[in-house]
Every structure is written in C-alpha cells, then in structure tokens.
Design brief:
- The complex is a heterodimer.
- Chain A is α+β, with helices and mostly antiparallel strands.
- Chain A has 2 domains: about 70 residues, no CATH class; about 180 residues, Cupredoxins -  blue copper proteins (Immunoglobulin-like).
- Chain A has 6 helices and 10 strands; from the N terminus they run ααααββββββββββαα.
- In chain A, strand 1 and strand 2 form a beta hairpin.
- Chain B is mainly beta.
- Chain B folds into 2 domains: about 30 residues; about 190 residues, Sandwich (Immunoglobulin-like), CATH 2.60.40.
- The chains are: A alpha+beta, B mainly beta.
Chain lengths: ~325, ~230
Amino acid sequence: MSAQQTSGAGATEPRHGMRLLAMWLVISAIADPLFWFLAGPHMPPGDMTTTASGAQSDFNVLMMAALPVTLGVWLYYGYAAVMWRASRGGSDLIGGPKARSNLRVQAAWIGTTTVVVLAAFVYGTVELVVPAGAGGGEGPQPIWTPTSKTILPIQVIAQQWKFSYRYPTYGGFETDQLMIPNDTTVAFHVTSLDVIHEFWAYQLEVKADANPGTDNVAFTTTKVLGNVTVRCSELCGIWHGAMFNFGHVVSKSQFQAWATTSEAKLAPVTKLLPAFSWSYTPDANGAAGGYYPDNADKYNKIETYGADKVSVADTKIKSS
Amino acid sequence: MGRGARLGIFSSLLAVAVGLVVFVSMAFLRSEPPTIDFAAGHTAGQPVDMTLQTVGAIGYGAHSTWVSYLTKAPNGKWVHTTLWDLPANTRINVTLYEYDGGSPLRNPQIGAVYGTLGNVEILNGKPVSLIDATQGNGVAHTFSVPTLGINVPLYAVDGNAKNFCNVPAPCPLSTAHNVIQFSFVTPKAAGQYPWQCFVPCGLGYLYGNGGPMQTISYMDGFLKVVS
C-alpha cells in the first residue's frame, strides 16, 4: 500500500494508505470539535452536579476517542467500495496466509487496540476515584470520599413502592420530598425497608442500590438549581414502574427555610419514627411489626469517613 | 382414508388447538376486574361521592383469605374492584368503611395524613391528621396514591371484637367498623394513577408485600382520570 504498485491491468496504483490516512485525519479533525462544541454540552445527564458534569465530560471524551475509530471504519468501507470495486479493475483481494503473516499489520493492530483499551481503563479508573465514586453507591464504608468539610447526609428510604427521605441533621424528620441545597456536597445514605430497590437520581448522576439492612453511600456536589427525577431502577414488584418522585435543588437559604419548617411541622410524626439509624431491619414475615434500627447509636457518628470528621452540628447547612 | 386426507384432518385439528390456546391466553392476559365509572354523567364543578370498604378476608373465590378493598357502584351494589373512572380536576369525597384488624406500621411516617383536603381525614366524626399505629387497634390499611402525594391511614377495628366481620364480603354495617371520610382533588391531566395500600398486609408473603398487595382489585388499583 505504501509504494506504487502495478495492478493487473498494468496501471500504476496510487498510495492508498497515505490517501486514507490524510482523509481520515481531516474528517476526524472536523468531526471531533463539532461534536465537542455542538453536541457535547447537551449530552446526558447534564451538569447539575459534579458527578453529572463528570459523567457528561467522560461521555464526551470517550465519544471523541470513538468517533475517529468509527469514521475510520466507514471511510475505509467507502474508499474500498469506490476504489477497489471489480468494474473499476481493482487489484485482487489479499487474504489467507499472505495477510496473516503480515507483521506490520499485526503489530499495528495489536499495538493500537492495546493502547486504546489501556487508555480507557486508566481514564475510567481515575474518573471513578477522583470524584468520590462518581455518584455510585460505595457501600457502608466508602473508599473514595469527598474532600469537602461540610457534608449534608440525606437518608433515602425505599419501600414497596415509594421513596422517602430522612434528614438526620434536622432532627431526623422523614418526608416524601427530596430537597437539596445548591453548592453543597451531599452524602446519600440509601437503604430499604423490604426488597432490593435502587435510588436513581438521574440529573444528579447518583445511582445506588437500596438493600434492606444496608447503608449504601453515594456522594455528589450540587452545582446548578433545578428539578430532579428519582426512579427505582431495580425491578421490585407490581408498582416498580410507578416508583418515582421528584426532587429539587434549591438555594441554601431556601433549603434552610424548608428544612427548619419541615422539622417543626413534622415533629409529631418524627416522634413516632424509630431512632435514626443508617439502616433498618424490617420484619420479614407478614404484616406485623414496624421498622427498627439495627444500631441506634450510629446517629452520633455521622460522616466518620473521609479526611474531615464533622459533628452533627457541623453538618447543618449554613446559609451563604 | 388416504394420506392427504389424514394430513388435512391433522392440520385442521392442530389449527383449532393452536387457536384455542391463543384465545385462552389472550383472554387471560386481557382480563381485569370491572372499572366503576364515576365520570359518566358528571356535572363539571360538582364533587363525586365514592364509597369503599376494606375487609380482612374477601371470603370467596380463589383467594378467599386475602384482604381486600371493595367499591360501591353508583347503583348501590358492592363490587370487588379497585379500578375507577374519575373526572379530572374534581373533588372526590370518599367514605370508607374499615372492617379489618390492624398492626403497627413498618414505616410510621405512613401514619400521617397528607394530600387530602386540609391534610386530614375524618375518623368516626373526628378530624385526624396522624395515627400512632402502636396505640389502640393500630392501622389496618392505607389509601395511598404516591404519584399524587396522597396518603390516608385507616384506623383498624379491634380484631377480637365479638362482632368482627367474619362473613364473606361485603361486610354489613352491623359488624365492627370505623368510618373514615376524606376528600381529594383529581389532577387536571387525564391518565392512570396507581394507588395502593402501604401496610404490608399480605400475610404469609415475604415482607407482607405479596399476594393481595400485588393484585389489582385487592389492595391496589388505578385512578383512571378522564377529562
């Protein structure tokens, strides 16, 4: 391919490899920036949180890498169909032992694919670690924790078939409303009172399994005001499809006002709730019995993971 | 009989058999309890009255021991269904006769009344906004529409009452019961809104959430809001 060759008809062959390379470079140089600047900002899940914008940029970076590969394949198909079709008197196909013993092709293929796969592996691992789990559930003892000094814990309680939320730093009230302050690092503590559910806050790019008796922690930091759709993404029974609700990222002052008002308004209900715990052990058999903590004194050990240990009082959000 | 004739008969019988299987399967898959139409003839701006009851055991059929809701149709007959056509953006006045015994709640938050007009229910003539399920008879069931933010806990009757309803549904007013009244407004948007009981009352099923809890016409159903 690299040198001029003589075809069966006796005509001089152009340097197809160089042609293809040049065309591929030009098309890729045009397509990648077009995608990055025009489509990239609109890719899901948006930029409402650090994890969401991280996922969006990860998607865009991987798309930038994949686009030239795709274009290269399509370009080769198109070029071959035009240049080497039989009616044009193209050269004979090269296959069999001749192709298998081509050391340059083999080395290029193995080298290129190895580099691509290793690069994707390293990039993916770094992007998982740096943003503290990238919004995924990390279990009860998170390995990757945020560096923020103030973390707002919100407990997500799933049950057949709804989500409710407890705010341990505001007296442990429980509500069906998910309100989150902006510009705040949040630790979602996801658990279940019955079967396995999954808390998927799409716009926040937070997704964590809700297992009974387990505290599954996922972090994110809010950046933009807006609405959030929460869905269960683990098939959990007849109303699984209806197990959704909506949350809101509001300003810190709005959140503070809502939280203090709700704490007071829901005080009679809160009195009936079990002492706050990071997980609960539901009665597995039949109708009787409430939910109860598996370790009630955990209430005083909020956010003991990470570099900065904070007290219960410290985790209350201050209005900016 | 020739080979062709035998083949023809066999093919015909096979076609009939396949047709029967398809017919029965489709009939089973498409079957559902009746829908009570509260929207027909409704005058805009007027409320709709709906009467329900909850029983500890339906008392007949394939699942005679299952707990269940029943609906009183406009003609006065009790119907074993949980599917209702309701007019959009309309006040629904519900009167519910509760005949079942109770228990504590798995999640006491569900003891709160919300989403109804005034966030209250009228229990035996008295307004109530919160029921402590650990006290008294506990909570038997709830009427909850999560997508509309409605939750109404239903205070139970004494399970050991001498006149506890032990007859096939519907239970008569002569047996032990509580009367619970509440009102809510249907959404402006037409659609099907699932509702359910949040008390895990499927005895014998894991976490109490199987059986009647996952079967339409027992402890869950649809508000079919029509515009």
